[in-house]
Design brief:
Layout: H1 2-17, E1 25-28, E2 33-35, H2 40-47, H3 50-58, H4 60-68, E3 78-83, E4 89-95, E5 98-105, E6 109-112, E7 120-127, E8 130-138, E9 144-145, E10 155-156, E11 173-176, H5 189-197, H6 201-218, H7 230-233, H8 252-261, E12 266-269, E13 289-292, H9 304-317, E14 325-328, H10 335-346, H11 351-359, H12 372-384, H13 391-401, H14 406-416
Parallel strand pairs: 2-8, 11-14, 12-13, 12-14
Antiparallel strand pairs: 1-3, 3-6, 4-5, 4-7, 7-8, 9-10, 10-11
Length: about 425
């Protein structure tokens, strides 16, 4: 009996010392843990030096693997997890005291998207009268990839270090692929090949049709290039009575993120008129101002049309009332990449980071012609022709040539760079 009392006494003492069974405990992320939304393949690519990244572009096997694995330019979510307590749970994530995520749920895990990079966050879970709080950090590694369902290649222009060591502000400017598909107004690969086999390309498209036929002949009767490439789109247009507006990519969740999380106010569309046929406003909603400025890319940024388009775009960035801004073409690669290059250069982003910002689209763009020699080097060559010891100074000279002043450039930096 005395032995039994001793055992019961030990058990009672242990129960008094142990935490209550319903105590709420944070499981993940651990206190002070560093989270990175970039996938391992993204991080491995960014870790390469400039020559290594250029070599990756030429590695068809590597490019095939990232397409096959569907790596894409989509981020990883942070999963918050906890145990104990009793649902429903109130979950809140804050940055510098400002709530950036809040939800109420019965489950003990939740995914959080679109966190800024290089920040320290606090998070709290409450349930069953219990409360637990913790902190975590996000890795200082650009780009800040964004999650907007069904919108590819979307990322924050901010996050990198710019002029005088000042970080480019996050949450003000986003580059992306189109918020809707291009208008359905040009012939696709199957239709083009059918016309080739029927021998009517030249009859249908004249001299350009003859050139296209010769190109397919050189490819031994195959269409090994994108029939919707810029140089072909105008030629392969269908009769206008067969045109259809492009399908909206903005899902209900995407609209919620765009309007209530990111708070977009302006949508700069860089596509040409026939790509935007049938559009009267932004796919992101009636409260988002749609600004349609047909743009150019690469070497064409030196043409009068390319300069005029960038001047129109830059004026939007000089008005604080237009922010946050999203700008895009259809793939977010060429026209979007050229605009992003100039904006980042004006902000003093390093040459290596300027390269990486353009190169990162390789995770989304399947076309093997998307490469440095075929595209990006031509943009670099445009700015090499301008005076200045750095790319930033050359970009300044380019923008001054468009009629903007040093005060305009200073205004842009004041808006976009952290204090």
């Amino acid at each position: 009996m005395n032995h039994l009392r001793s055992v019961l006494g030990l058990a009672l003492s242990a129960s008094l010392l142990a935490p209550a069974a319903f105590a709420l405990e944070l499981v993940s992320p651990k206190e002070g843990e560093v989270f990175c939304a970039l996938k391992p393949e993204h991080r491995a690519f960014l870790k390469l030096d400039a020559e290594g990244r250029r070599a990756q572009f030429l590695d068809e096997a590597w490019r095939g693997r990232i397409v096959e694995k569907d790596i894409a330019s989509t981020p990883l979510p942070l999963e918050l997890a906890w145990r104990g307590g009793k649902g429903p749970y109130d979950v809140k994530v804050t940055l510098d005291g400002k709530t950036v995520f809040v939800t109420n749920l019965m489950e003990t895990t939740v995914k959080v998207w679109n966190l800024e990079i290089a920040r320290e966050y606090a998070w709290t879970v409450c349930g069953g009268g219990e409360r637990a709080s913790g902190r975590f950090r996000t890795r200082d590694l650009a780009p800040r990839l964004m999650y907007v369902p069904d919108v590819p290649n979307i990322r924050d222009l901010g996050g990198r270090t710019g002029l005088d060591g000042r970080r480019v502000k996050q949450g003000l400017a986003y580059r992306s692929a189109g918020l809707n598909e291009n208008a359905s107004n040009c012939y696709g690969a199957k239709e083009t090949m059918a016309m080739y086999k029927a021998g009517v390309l030249e009859k249908r498209f004249g001299e350009e049709g003859r050139k296209l036929k010769e190109r397919i002949d050189r490819e031994k009767g195959a269409l090994k290039f994108d029939p919707k490439a810029p140089w072909l789109r105008k030629m392969l247009l269908k009769p206008e009575n067969e045109w259809r507006p492009g399908k909206n990519r903005m899902t209900p969740e995407g609209l919620h993120i765009a309007n209530y999380v990111l708070g977009w106010k302006s949508d700069i569309d860089l596509r040409r008129d026939f790509e935007c046929w049938g559009m009267t406003g932004s796919p992101a909603g009636a409260d988002v101002k749609w600004l349609h400025y047909s743009s150019k890319a690469y070497a064409a940024m030196a043409t009068p049309e390319g300069k005029e388009a960038f001047a129109n775009v830059f004026r939007v960035f000089l008005d604080r009332r237009n922010y946050p801004i999203v700008f895009h073409c259809i793939g977010g690669a060429d026209r979007t990449g050229a605009v992003a290059f100039i904006l980042n250069a004006l902000l003093g982003v390093s040459d290596d980071e300027l390269d990486k910002d353009w190169e990162f689209t390789v995770f989304t763009y399947k076309d093997q012609s998307f490469g440095h020699k075929t595209r990006f080097d031509k943009l670099r060559k445009v700015f090499d022709a301008y005076p200045g010891a750095t790319t930033r100074e050359k970009a300044e000279a380019y923008v001054r040539e468009l009629g903007f002043s040093d005060a305009d450039i200073a205004m842009f930096r004041n808006i976009m760079l952290e204090d």
